[in-house]
Amino acid sequence: PSLSVSRGNSQPVVLHCHAGCTDEEILSALDLSWPDLLGDDAPSKSDFERAPWDHGEEVEAYEYYDRDEVHVYTVKRYEHPEMPWKTFRPYEPGVEYGPGLDDDTERELYRLPSVLEAADEGGVVFVVEGEKDVHALEERGFTATTSGAADSWKDRFSEDLAGAKVVILPDNDDPGRELAEEAARSLYTEADWTRIVELEDLPHGGDVSDWFARGHDREELAEIVDNTPDVDASDVEAFVEE
Fold first, then answer.
1. How far apart are the C-alpha atoms of 64 and 108, rounded to whole Å?
2. Cα–Cα distance for residue pair 144/168, rounded to 1 Å
3. Among 12, 35, 135, 241, whose CB has the most other CB atoms within 10 angstroms?
4. How far apart are CA 12 and CA 37, in angstroms?
């Protein structure tokens, strides 16, 4: 009773689990794949990831800046029009397609200039897993940043957040929690305080954008943050041991 299957407008088959299962989990339980539903001519996920501009659509372009407010690279988000697939590709400024970033291009925190300003004032900065979540928080008046994907955190990012009050909002999955622990360990001696907020009412793999989409608001998030304890030395020791 929690599963609905219907024809879609932008894709032939739409799956929706009201209990929060992902499409991939539904198909795995049925021993099916997307090509089973959509036909032999459908591209594979590897085809899409190898050349997303051929098999998908560019839906967002996120510009990254360094400490001097110089545009250093752009991350483009591609989505497949029929499959529930997405991928991200970084490009040097002015490059539309290419192999990626030059070897000497260093990764930066997203929205770095506003992050540095907030940290200098001892303000609150949210750390999330994707640019979409940064935008969702900014729309509600917060300062937010991301290092990119779950495995993209670098210890030097903690220097950019020195003096800030840092709230880490992990995605609801193991990679998200691992990112939260890694960032919290790195930030422990740099930030004014660090808090890890694991939101409830999220599907597996869900994020703060999903949480807002479920009807939660800015005031509720602020209250949750206020009631969350700081990461302390025993937490950091546990992260290191794990």
1. 7
2. 10
3. 135
4. 8
Distance CA 127, CA 114 (A): 13
CA distance 165 to 167: 7
Please name the amino acid found at residue 214: R
Q: How many CB atoms lie within 10 A of CB 16?
A: 12
State the Cα–Cα distance between residues 225 and 166, nearest whole angstrom: 10
Tokens of 59: 């839906």
SS3 label, residue 71: strand
Helices (H), strands (E): how many in the chain?
A: 11, 9
158: nearest Cα among 125, 199, 198: 125
N-to-C CA span, the chain: 39
The 10 Å Cβ neighbour count of residue 238 is 11
Specify which residues 78 forms β-bridges with: 58, 87
Q: What is the rounded CA–CA span in Å between residue 201 and residue 178?
A: 20
